[in-house]
Amino acid sequence: VQSMEDASPAKWHLAHTSWxxxxxxxxxxxxxxxCFDESYxxxxxxxxEAEGARHTRSRRGMLTRPSLDEIRSYRKHVDEAMEKxxxxxxxxxxxxxxxxxxxxxxxxxxxxxxxxxxxSCNPLLPAYQSSSGESLHTVDTGALNWITGPEGVQEIGHDxxxxxxDCEGPRHQVVLTPFAMADRIVTNAEWGEFIADGGYRxxxxxxxxxxxxxxxxxxxxxxxWSRTGNDDWHVFGMGGNRPMVPSAPVRHISxxxxxxxxxxxxxxxxxxxxxxxxxxxxxxxxxxxVWEWTGSAYRPYPGFRAAEGAVGEYNGKFMSGxxxxxxxxxxxxxxxxxxxxxxxxxxxxxxxxxxxxxxxDLSYSPCSPKPPRTxxxxxxxxxxxxxxxxxxxxxxxxxxxxxxPARWLYDRRGSELFEQITELPEYYPxxxxxxxxxxxxxxxxxxxxxxxxxxxxxxxxxTKTPHLLRAVAPSAYxxxxxxxxxxxxxxxxxxxxxxxLPIHPLEADFxxxxxxxxxxxxxxxxxxxxxxxxGNMVARTSVDLLRSMRETLGQGAYLLIGFxxxxxxxxxVAAYDDSAGVTAEFSLNLLHRINHELDADIPVGQFxxxxxxxxxxxxxxxxxxxxxxxxxxxxxxxxxxxxxxxIHIENSHKYGLRDARLMLRxxxxxxxxxxxxxxxxFSLIIAEARPFKHAP
Length: 696
Known about the structure:
seven-stranded mixed β-sheet; 17 helices; globular; 24 strands; four-stranded mixed β-sheet
């Protein structure tokens, strides 16, 4: 019987694991071996394209024949042949035997979770085993403590000692920023608090796809949770339907649910690199109780190569659209619980024994005291920025897909070039947004009121800012920018224009948590985020940033934000690839910066600026494309690029007005008013950080 497409009948698991040995070891390497039944190659092949056609996965439950007795005879036939063959196998064949054994162990776990899901579909809710035999470990539910993880350059991946699946290697270096992980797994009781607080009804905590999933599937609790007549929670498990144990680890949750809970708890999911580095050094208490979701996509490690032939399909072909889980569960064979083991499932799947452990960043946080504005403090900030630049550049060239975050375009020279771009005839956003500020700043004043402290994120030259400052008569102004030299110069210019206005420049990367100057801590605030800079980020990052801005500015704050609108693609491409070549110089300046700051020897003249419109994602994509085969080094790392290969350096998403308003709402902002030019090229939206209201 098959309960859903993701699961398989017990009989199929038994046959498939024997088919693996028959197909990859006996059939091709033992001349005297005779296949038990030629039709089994079609019936019990799972996903190996190189092995030909196969029975549809969703219809495995229709296989009433062969019978269970026939499958047992098949297994006996294969087992006896393998007992005779194993002594003759060596080298790669011996390794393949070991892979087959571990493959069967994986199916032992899948067999149990598939049976559990099957039994849950039975109205009688039968038990697989007596309740006394089911493992229900509990968690120490004292105060949550945090384990500080290692930082800087670390190594993860299988070290070559003992068996590992190919996806666990090669061992390689990663760069970790300061972080910590919880010393225990999230419990049923804690999850119950999430439910009681409206966690499944509050879109602020959910990824966009997750929120769609929750609404479409009417998800309101973990899989196998149900309420009794007296409103108490019961949880269905291997021992049947039993009262929920508050101190037991929460199980059977999706990545979507885990991520939403972490957001609700003011934390995040760990990356798999963070999880592994702590697990292999200090250890993680409770590891092995549930498979723990990470926030890492299941992708190949640097240098990964799939094996030749059909066996190469074992893991590599699934490295798309899935997320990594670490640890193990009560159903996991003990030999599969190791720090480097990478389990993986799609973000909506939850019939496995899946749970979560929280993580958090330890870098400069909003609750940290503000450092004094001394030269030493500024040097420390500068050093941190340089470290981030170095990490991102080295990570870019160490991976298979070259990509550099757009924020590193804005050193002093990059900022100067961007200001030149804003004056180009093709570049409509600046002049259009400036006109909107000139025309509607008085309406901003009517909504937000006078005397607020204006906080500008990514202030640059602050050329648009005077229009706003004149209208709203602020009590203080805080420009925030990553380029310290440019920030200080523009702040001096503004101080000349507004001599009585307290200006507190803050050199920082606003993509990270901020500590605003103490001088404005008691003032109502108006955030200013012009230029459609929000478009440089993917949707999830944009929402996270807007949510962080809400936390930084505080309840009752307003945010005035610019959104570039969707329009004719020729107009868009021209704005990012001007005829004078200024934008190209701006992009190529990034390579000059890498050469200057990281002792690199990139042949800048062998790269070209490329701007493309991606209609599917409604965004301009900017690349640096190699004009010929090139090789260079960055801090000792040797890099080769083929002609036509590209480095992705920036996205610029464009928006419909409804999309922009929904993004703000997802981050906890309430849109109040919007203004657009007559051609709908650009829009300003003012939103308010109102108190959250939870559904009853």
